[in-house]
Amino acid sequence: MKANIPAEALHTEEMLINMGPQHPSTHGVLRVILRTDGEVVVNARPDVGYLHRGLEKIGERVTYAQFMPFTDRLDYLAAMNCNCAFAWAVEKLAGIEVPERAEYIRVIVCELNRISSHLIAFGSFTADMGAFTPFLYSIRERERVNDLFELICGNRLTYNYARIGGVSADLPPGFLEKTKEFLDYFEPKIDEYNDLISYNKIFVHRLANVAVISGDDAVAYGLTGPNLRGSGVKFDLRKDEPYSVYPKIDFKVCAGTGERGTLGDCFDRYMVRINEMRESVKILRQAIAQIPEGPVTAKVPRVFKPAAAEAYVRTECPRGETGFYIISDGTVNPSRLKIRAGSFVTMNIFEKVTRGLMIADIVAVIGSFDIILPEIDR
Amino acid sequence: MEPQALFDAVKAKFGDSALELQSAGCRPAFVVVAPGSIADVARFLRDDPAMRFDSLMCLSGVDTKDRFAVACHLYSMQHRHAIGLKAYLPKENPSLPSLDAVWPAANFMEREAFDLYGIVFQGSKDLRRILLPEDWEGHPLRKDYKYPESYHGIKV
Questions:
Q1: What does DSSP assign to residue B146?
Q2: Is A300 domain-assigned?
Q3: Beta-strand (E) ranges in chain A?
Q4: Is residue A282 part of a domain?
Q5: Is the pLDDT of residue A110 over 90?
Q6: What is the pLDDT of residues A182-241, one digit of tens each?
Q7: Which of A65, A141, A215, B134 has a CA-to-CA distance to A102 between 20 and 30 Å?
Q8: Phi and psi dihedrals of A344, rounded to 5?
Q9: Has residue A2 been placed in a domain?
Q10: Using CA atoms, how far apart are residues B91 and B144, in angstroms rounded to an integer?
Q11: Preferred mutation among B23, B55, B116 to probe A, highest tally of A CBs within 10 A
């Protein structure tokens, strides 16, 4: 029904709305300052830093080995990946050779953690989009990954498992069999997710053609990981700057295809994560088949003083490239320990892609970026 | 492209603004330039067909006790090579041209360096504190930073 009101009698003005820092869909303490015209977002400015703990300053005051537990607190949904990223960085800085078994163990735990992290991304994203059941499914599966990690190191969230030169302990007996059991159980579940929600008409409508990022923009704005690949750029550090034992393993780099809308929209970013879980299963099966016997730690001196050097080493974490820029001055503490986190750089493009969207789409964009706040704020 | 060849190309184009190539113990090697020329060198590194450094991986502030530095790590998606770009700044009023017009990714990283080191990026489109509260005093990652006793009556 058309209201019979003359246009000039309607008083409209822009509104300033605070979304967060305590808001269930911002995945943590992210505050977004929205300027809206009705339901349309004129400008969405992210305000980060609520979780800043000064990890880089702490890094300069502790020894290299002591910093390992702090890396757990970088991205707590993928603590194994952060552990290993730091270990790989220090090893490249100091030129330490790691035993092959340790590298295989790291790849196994990293890929398990990638699955569990993508499960949370999938679950919380779908919950944000109004479908609560998939969240329960994803938590159910993630629980089994947590059980596996508990076997390895006794912890379920912050593992502190990697060590400079290897890992803290060898795999417990029966671990690989249990992991295989998990993979056999988990692999068919991915199809179940797709049947349940991925191609649900309402879900697709919420995501397709929303917040489209071109491949060139994604590179220029420094997007990495699934967010970069969602824009169709086939770039994966595991493949393109291979480290550890990834060159010995066969897997596919998943990228967006624009299958339900435009290349680089929220749906593509979502789908990259779903497909990556399948690839992680493939990687895990090969790593389990190939893992050799042998020691799990290299000989690293107790008082570890790398020679004066500088290194920037990056690895592929579930939320993109995690890089450590470490400057050693030959003492027991790093002189500078800069952490480049995928989510932090991703937030840079947020203001650009959300212009002109609806408020409800903001939630979709945050979910499709799969950001995590402790990594942004450090 | 080898770091030495790359440095020679920068030297040929920018002359004395290209100061040195730091390669011993650096991974990747650094091209050290005069702070005032960093944006021009960056644009050259991004646009030159043989370089094509289209991706800024990381931009970090550094405090070397006697001076500051800004270290950028660049990567080329096309040629799959990496290089570092560095400029040293004096302790007093450290400032250099902003890189966010060259790589939009630089904005948040520059804000972080500004926040934690007090390095000013001239011409930046948006230079505000990012991780700390806006009324925070000092720049905590400086080596001579003094920890405050309290913040708004809260004991630190």
A1: P
A2: yes
A3: 15-19, 31-37, 40-47, 162-163, 166-167, 309-317, 320-328, 334-340
A4: yes
A5: yes
A6: 999 999 999 989 888 888 888 999 898 888 999 999 999 999 999 999 999 999 999 888
A7: A141
A8: -60, -50
A9: no
A10: 11
A11: B55
Nearest-Cα residue of chain A relative to residue B131: A49
Vertex A54 angle, CA A344 and B93, to 5°: 85
Distance separating alpha carbons of residues B129 and B114, to the nearest angstrom: 7
Closest partner residue to A312 among B58, B103, B131, by Cβ? Answer: B58
Residue extents of the structural domains in chain B: 3-155
* pLDDT score at B154: 87
CA distances from A91 to A80, A84, A88, B36 (A): 16, 10, 5, 35
Check pLDDT > 80 for residue A94.
yes
3-state class (DSSP) for residue A72: helix
**C-alpha–C-alpha distance, residues B154 and B156, integer Å:** 6
Mean pLDDT by 10 residues, chain B (156 residues): 84 84 85 90 89 90 91 91 92 90 92 92 90 89 88 86
At A182, which CATH number?
A: 1.10.645.10
What is the DSSP annotation of A90-157? HHHHHTPPPPHHHHHHHHHHHHHHHHHHHHHHHHHHHHHTT--HHHHHHHHHHHHHHHHHHHHHS-SS
Report the residue from B57, B107, B108 with minimal CB separation from A323. Answer: B57
Category of A357 on φ-ψ map: left (φ > 0), alpha (ψ -120 to 50) or beta: beta
Are A47 and A138 spatial neighbours (Cβ–Cβ below 8 Å)? no
CB distance A378–B55 less than 8 Å?
no
- Residue from the list A57, A222, A309 with its beta carbon closest to the beta carbon of B105: A222
For testing the chain B interface, which of A229, A233, A348, A350 should be mutated: the one with the most B CBs within 10 Å?
Answer: A348
Q: CA angle, B58 as apex, B54 and B61 as ends, to 5°?
A: 130
Q: Reduce the DSSP state of residue A241 to 3 states and report it.
A: coil
Q: List Cβ neighbours of A1 (8 Å cut-off, separation of 6 or more).
A: none
CB-CB under 8 Å, A219 with B77: yes
Residue A258 pLDDT grade (very low, low, confident, very high; cuts 50, 70, 90):
confident
Amino acid identity for residue B43 in this structure: R
Q: What superfamily does domain B3-155 belong to in CATH? A: NADH:ubiquinone oxidoreductase Nqo5 subunit (3.30.460.80)
> How many domains does chain A fold into?
1
Distance CA B90, CA A96 (A): 35
Q: Identify the domain containing residue A277 by its residue range.
A: 9-377
In a domain, A4, yes or no: no
Give the C-alpha separation, B20 to B71, whole Å: 14
And the tokens for A305? 């003083």
Question: Using alpha carbons only, how large is chain A's radius of gyration in Å?
Answer: 22
